[in-house]
Amino acid sequence: MKVNTKRIMITVLSIMALAVLCGCAKDVPTLPAELEIPWVEIESPHYEGTVTSMAIGDDGTVYLGAYIRQPGIDPSVILISNDGGETWRENHIDMFWIECITIDSRGYLFATGYGWKVWRSKDGGETWDSSDLGTFERNTDVYSFIGPNDEIVIWGEREGVFMSTDAGDNWESLVDTFTWGYSRDISMTDDYRFFAITGNGLFFSDDTCASWEGPMEGPWSYTPQQILVMSDGTLIVQIGRIYLSRDNGETWEPITDDSNHVDWVWKDTMGRLYYLDDRILMMSVDLGQSWVYQMEAIGYPGWCRVGSGPSGEIFVSTGRDGSGFCRSLDGGTTWEYLGLAEGEPREIHWGSDGRIYVSMPTSGIFRTDASDISWECFSDKKELLFSSCLIERQNGELLAGTSYGIFSSSSWDMEWICLGNYRFTSRISAIMDMPGVGTFAATPGG
Question: Among the CATH numbers 2.130.10.10, 1.10.490.10, 3.40.50.11240, 3.40.718.10, which is that of 304-442?
């Protein structure tokens, strides 16, 4: 059985950025040709959303958990492909966010994530039913593993560990959060040993989570962020720097230096390690003894924003060095850094007046002519200094969402009008305009 990869949290825009924005680093070591990995973009039926999890069945079927933004339907969807990603079919389930998809030896699928339920499919993802564990809070990470006898082990950040021995019909609580404190990460070896990072340290179990020992000691002054277990039992811990242990955690050695600030580390099915350091993706084929450059996204992918002009130009805002705005006129082969005022570019909009508009949470709204890059501030109100989203209505009116409410500029000048802020308890994170229906605003609270 092929075990799913865990915590694939790459947005569709980030995938585009990683696929397009390569070759930007200079004097960086590369792999020999025989070890190079080709990166390709797999098309899916959705135009906007987030791939959150993946599993591959013994027959090669690919299952993706995704979060999509389409009005009137459940946001979580299972995408299924039997031909390596050429075509997809989909099924929606009542879950806010699918963190993990697991497959047991019978081919049963189990989907877990944000929410109270564990979803199960006995027919390859065509139909789904659910088990309500009753104690799970909403908005929590929940992951699942398959034990040696098809036991299902469920781990929740705020709930502890649960197990089912009857394919999810009944559940038993093994460890609660009062014992552990807040849980952060968990990994399982090929011989079914478990290692878990909790608020009280690093613990391990060699009896399918029935009992736990720890906390384990290590060369860190605070609790690690990630734990990975390689197929040979080697432990990998990430705490801004990456450490390795070959003796079940008795001793540890660093495999990245102090100059690295690792954002995330993961492994593939061939035992290769990857880590993301700011905007650089590195790979190791020898458990961190040496690292080679894979590709570069201009800026941290989690904040990358991509926009296209009418002639095929590609524009990227990145937060690079505190501010950043890059343009490519040749499909991403070469890039020109355009600069911008100090701040973190958040949204790019190509206006119907032919100018480029950029919103930045700490600096306001800026615009420039596309043919002659010269930025000017397009906001004269202090409330617009905290703009996080920018759209244009069908009638040409600009709407800006800020921490103070929604503002409108209908004449493409400095005259901004506040449309209302009394209903919002936090910043406006997204605005959507639907002609004939209405304008919708979203905040982190609702």
Answer: 2.130.10.10
Residue 122: pLDDT over 50 = yes
pLDDT at 303 over 60: no
Distances (CA, A) of 211 to 161, 169, 306, 397: 11, 23, 48, 61
Topology at the third CATH level for domain 10-219? Methylamine Dehydrogenase; Chain H (2.130.10)
337 contacts 347 by C-beta, under 8 angstroms: no
Q: Which of 127-131, 240-244, 271-275 has the lowest mean pLDDT?
A: 271-275
Numbered ranges of CATH 2.130.10.10 in the chain:
10-219, 304-442
pLDDT digits (tens, 9 = 90+) for 428-445: 666 666 666 666 666 554
Q: What percent of the chain has pLDDT over 70?
A: 51
Direct distance between the N- and C-terminal alpha carbons of the chain, in angstroms, rounded to an integer = 40
Q: pLDDT category, 227, cuts 50, 70, 90?
A: confident
pLDDT above 80: residue 41: no
